Amino acid sequence: MVDLTDGRGRVRRRAGVRLWLSGLWLGLLVVVALLAPWIAPKDPLAQDLFLGRLPPFWVAGSEPGYWLGTDSLGRDVLSRIMHGARIALLVALIAGTVTGLLGATLGLLAGFLRGWVDVVISRMIDIWMAFPPVLFSILLIAVLGPGLTSIIIAIVVIDWTRFARVIRAEAMAQGAMDYVASSRVAGRGRLGTMVEEILPNVLPTIVVLLTLEMGIAVIVEAILSFVNLSISTDDPTWGGMIAEGRSAIHQSWWVLVFPLATLFLTVLSFSQLGEGLKDRFDPVLR
After folding, report:
1. pTM of the model
2. How does pLDDT run across 260-270, given as a tens digit for each residue?
3. Strand locations in 22-171 (E)
4. Residue 76's beta-bridge partner residues?
């Protein structure tokens, strides 16, 4: 006989580890981003060609105060990573939230109201998903012009379909439940049933998708920074640092490795946070 209790316990423990580790990294990143102007060891824009390409503190030839070395212009890598976190998290928060609100609202309307509303929204989703997302984002930035606002608009325009498709399916499944029929029999209107009955039951899915979308937003911002379609090239961004480090990987590997590792850990943490929340909110496990 299979012991389901033990299996559920292992899943809960794994979910707890995911939540703690990912939450610890993201919490640390948020603190660093908020306090970067005060705790960053150097000015991220200050240049000193005499200090160009200094190695990290544990490598011979390093200078005190430059913990992760400098780039080709003598700018402190650690300070630029800290200030780059501000841009990455700002884009993740705003773009992820707006995308989630738009996509979840449309998905909820399509999945619960059905009829012509579902047909129109579903056709919009099909049309939007026919465009390659990266090329579509580059096209939008080229039209709107570089800048944080343009990046956020591009992410929202491209990724709302991710929320809409999943929430539409969830809303359709919840709409077939007995509690929805009981609510309608009790005299509650369609809008009231959708907001008070359907929405609370799809909210865990929305939260999980939101964390995943924030990780995607960080990647998109890094890609656009990498191809110089983000903010000013002088401002510190992780994608811009990776682009610079790629061209000098043999002379100063640290310029590429440290922002790339930070980007990887951030996206992985958002992903694992979503997976942990999914396991925690799974109704079968609960």
Report:
1. 0.87
2. 999 999 999 99
3. none
4. 70
pLDDT greater than 90 at residue 280: no
Cα(212)–Cα(272) distance, integer angstroms = 9
How many residues does the structure list for the chain?
A: 286
CB 95, CB 154: distance < 8 Å: no
Residue 152 tokens read as: 């956020």
In this predicted structure, the answer to whether residue 284 has a pLDDT above a threshold of 50 is: no
Cα dist from 277 to 72, 164, 169, 201, 283, whole Å? 42, 20, 19, 14, 12
Beta strands in the chain (DSSP E): none
* Domains of the chain and any CATH numbers: 4-281 (1.10.3720.10)
Query: Which whole number is the average pLDDT over 40-58?
Result: 90
Task: Name the β-bridge partners of 233.
Answer: none
User: What's the average model confidence in pLDDT over 87-111?
Assistant: 92
- Round to whole Å and give the CA distance between 164 and 23: 26
Quote the crossing angle between the two packed helices 199-226 and 133-144, to the nearest 10°. 70
Helix, strand or coil for residue 76? strand
Mean pLDDT within 102-130: 88
Give the H or E element holding residue 134. helix 133-144
- Nearest Cα neighbor of 44 from 84, 71, 76 is 76
Distant-in-sequence, close-in-space partners of 27: CB < 8 Å, separation ≥ 6: none
Cα 271 from Cα 139, distance rounded (Å): 27
Query: Of 145, 110, 139, 140, which Cα lies nearest the Cα of 124?
Result: 110
Bridge partner residues of 265 (DSSP):
none
- In sequence order, what DSSP letters do the residues of 5-43 get, joined into one string? HHHHHHHHHHHHHHHHHHHHHHHHHHHHHHHHHHH-SS-
